[in-house]
Amino acid sequence: MKNYIYKMSPLLLSILAVNAQALESLDDSQMSSVRGQAGITLDFNPGITTIGAITYTQDDVGLSLNDVKITGTPGKFSTTTIDIESDGRLVLDTKQAQTEFEIGSIGMTSSIGTTGEFMGIRGRTSDYNAVNGTGETIISLGDDPNDPNTYDLAGSKLGLFYDRLHFIDDNNEWILDDLAINAVVNYGKLVVMDDGLKFDFDAGDSFDSGSRGLSISYDANAVGMSLGTTPETRIGYDDDLTNTFGSVSLNLNAYGSFTLLNKGKSNQGITFIPAFTLVNDDDDIPAFKYTDDGFIVLAKNFTGDFSTNSGFTVDFSENDSGEPYIDVSYSDFAFAFNLEDLVLGGSEAAYDA
What we know:
- This protein is mainly β.
- 7% of the residues lie in helices and 55% in strands.
- The chain is globular and about 55 Å long.
- Mean pLDDT is 84; it is low at 1-36.
């Protein structure tokens, strides 16, 4: 058993003592009324936060997020509620508020100091939308009665909602407008292993849509491009997009597993092992839809296999000249799919009719 010792200054102890005098004891009946309350809610606005660099180093090669800036909207707060339900499940529910962010560049540094920079990213998140649930992330973590190393993830959700998301490279910006990304865990287990983590999203009945572990959706109202990247010439988050390529949506269910391995040795990297079946058999919502000027391309009744036995290994490395790079290797990746219904070039009005 580990023992932890925390040192407190006399000033801190005196502050705690003064505040403790304002506390009142609760009897058993009062304590019973506390149980089952809505948990603790934290409101957060980052103000203007700047970070020079965030760096992850592996095998003496570093990956950095440079010139990070986060700007909260005055008067708007992201909220996080922390609650423990009656069955002991821990739930963290975060509803995002409008916030601007920017990463000046993503770069790498070799063991001898040689650097290289890739793209930059900037964007603005949207406020949480209570009508469609966009902009909400939930971590739901419960015990598995059959295995102390397994945790139940059902009810968890990743929800990202952006007014605009910009990818910057070579003085160009690719822009995603009104972008919403959602991944909902209908069934999920987190298994803690000696050498990594396994996420199991297979409930065992692939024909029952409610038993498919993941529901995934992606919606972008428009995809645009800008040739100006300086503060004076680049497109603002509320400016009109003049050069766009239409809207894109993707809706899939998935079941299977995803394993993350870290063997903890030099030059071995991190291994990702996806083993997913992707499905969309919804008559009303297509698996893929692209709309531009009223015309559509869409795919329905989709089934696909996205899997590998050995996995994708990602490692940081450098060549003989000391130039850093990311090495991605795999040997048995398989992606096969079956599509029963494809619509090309029809009008959206005719399709909806």
